[in-house]
Amino acid sequence: MIKTPLWIFITLGIFLGVSQSFFFLTPIVIITYFLFIKKILLKDNLKDSFFAGWSFGIGFYIGSMHWIISPFLIYEKHLFLSPVSILFPLLMGLFFSIPSVLITILKNFVFFHKLSLISKAFMIATFFFISEIIKSQIFGGLPLNLTGHLWAFNHEFIQVSKFIGVMGLSFFTLLWISSISIFLIEKKFSHSLLTFIFFPLFLLSFNFFSNFQKSKAVNNQISFRVIQPNIPQIEKWNKLYFEKNINKLLELTNKENLEEKDKIVVWPEVALTYFLTEESDVIEYIKKNIPKNITLITGGLRREFNNKNFKIYNSLYLINNENFDFYDKKKLVPFGEFVPLRGILKSFKLAPGTSDFSEGDKVNQMRIKLENKEFFFEPSICYEAIFQTFSKNKSSVFVNITNDAWFGKTIGPRQHLASQIFRSVEKSVFFLRSANSGISVIVNNKGKILKKISLNSVGYIEMKTQLSSEETFFERHGNITVFFTIIFLGLLFYLIEFIISLKRYR
Fold this sequence. Notes:
Radius of gyration: 25 Å
CATH superfamily of the largest domain: Carbon-nitrogen hydrolase
Number of domains: 2
């Protein structure tokens, strides 16, 4: 048997990585998986499977996360580190070695060839899913570019997330792809076509459940405005531009403002590069220059002193005449906000400053009090919003502030947004996203983008909406629903195999 060169697997991985970020390239995603699974099923040697899977994974992360090099190019002092970014796909590619090796181990068992095609597909999908779970949890986790994110930019296909979350959607998408692949390998073309058609229809059916659900309003209509200043990263931390930047934000906030209506305005991550708890004059300047009807949510910095030491936090602030509160970021970005193994890798920090940020410990829920209204919102900063969270009280709005200027005109901001949209569906809440350079959005509780500001544009979007208090099935039960779904399907397929074996030996 002629061995497939590893560059073939890398190429297939690149095709998958690029295609998985675009809904209209779904057929290429399926074809890529089909070719990969077919080649892995031909391998008997675990070493060959490991390196084939690793090569495929390297290609996937080169194709899907090539933008990881962009932060190294912002400041000249980091240009020499840009080749280091190749270490990321080399490390992350190992996650595709897991399903490759497991498939080969399974294939080497005699009973594998006797399994029904759908049972084979189920086991292969489960192996890929196990890898996604591990990737999403280990070393702080990176639930980015999940298989379920394929559907993110067509909200009608992701309503099932209200019941099983994005991880559940990922599993069923993998099962769909694996089933089509196995049918194609076995030349069951009619089965492949029916499977290809059935699954999207299955996903669309959850729109009916979503449309019939009644939401309980928690208050009167509230107006929101999301600001996108598009301040260049090279200017953001330069003190010469502080006054210019804050005035730009205030101008976008006050433009065409109707002062008789209460309004919540959202600025992006570290829109104010000040330690706001220490800068009372900055706070007063903001309050003086925004109308009284506005409650401001903005990113800023915070410091805590302890004897001769201090801690720095990346924070979200809530500011109006009655409120001054903050939330500290909990999920920090490696090399951006802290340096792992700092003693060895201290020169690898990309963001300005020499000190690491500290992890916050406050509950990820804040209360907004207006004149006749009060509601909870869930704050998140930067890539925190790609992680699933569960709160004691029901939030009515999900707010994310971020600064994707680090990633320029790459696909990074689009992928970041795609993964965050699922929080609005899982929790059935409005989602507000203020990104310094884009993409800023207002998303409804079905994950539909109602308004947006494109990448590298300046402006604001505004909307008046009625908030609701609907608690979803997924909020109540979490990812345990995915676990029980897989167990149920496993038992079902085992029963099918048992019945088939009984008929075989009659």
